[in-house]
Amino acid sequence: AVIHAPFVQTPLVSPNPHIEREARRQILMSVRAAGALGLEAVTVHAGLPTGMTQEEFDPRLVEFLQILGEEAERAGTKIGLENWRYPATPEDHIRLLEAVDHPAVGATLDVGHICYWFENEGITALTDETAVANYQARLHTLIDQI
What's the CATH number where 72 sits? Predict the structure, then answer.
């Protein structure tokens, strides 16, 4: 089983240190809870570089994802970085995961968010080029409506 860490108003990186600290506290709690519950992975969103450049945002994001990886390893779970508005392309997703370079940090692939990528080849590139910690295909439609 997989849980989703908080992602609404809980950015992994923020220009406001108080918001960032509280968001990170909540996300780390999710990782510890996942470990205590014996869950396979915790899905996180990278967020968007609000109030800073991409060049300022990315190193801080990578650093915190590495911290999450360490915490996940201690807890006996993994981190899945979900495709959303950022990373905005399969190449961005792969680049981020390669920069993080942690065995407990991989990808969560939300097929409902593939529309942000606008290319089917992205799925293959992501799964072929990364060690996917959590390949989670979540459909955003109700099965009973089919």
Answer: 3.20.20.150
In the sheet that holds 105-108, the strands lie side by side as: 2-4, 41-44, 78-82, 105-108
CA 111, CA 137: separation in Å to the nearest integer?
6
State yes or no: cis peptide before 17, omega within 30 of 0.
no
The predicted-structure confidence for 59-91, as pLDDT tens digits, reads as follows 999 999 999 999 999 999 999 999 887 887 888
Would you say the pTM of this structure is higher than 0.85? no
Number of domains in the chain: 1
Q: Name the E strands within the chain.
A: 2-4, 41-44, 78-82, 105-108
SS3 at position 96: helix
